[in-house]
Write a structure and sequence with these properties.
- The protein is 85% helix and 0% strand.
- With 59 residues, it is mainly alpha-helical.
- The protein has one domain.
- Helix 1 runs antiparallel to helix 2.
- The two termini are 14 Å apart.
Length: 59
């Protein structure tokens, strides 16, 4: 499994979530909801990757 790619994805998805939270006033109204939903999906997948990697390391 490519752990470097997983780590880059996890860091970038959390950074996207932080940027979206910090700049929510500057994002146009029609883009807020779709960007928030995409970011939530990416962060949930990042959590899944973290848990999955912990299970693999333990096996």
């Amino acid at each position: 499994m490519n752990n470097e790619a997983n780590l880059i994805f996890i860091i970038s998805s959390f950074c996207l979530a932080v940027v979206l939270i910090l700049t929510r006033e500057r994002i146009p109204e029609r883009l807020r909801r779709p960007m928030a939903l995409i970011t939530i999906a990416l962060v949930l997948f990042a959590f899944f990757l973290i848990v999955y990697n912990f299970f693999i390391m333990g096996a």
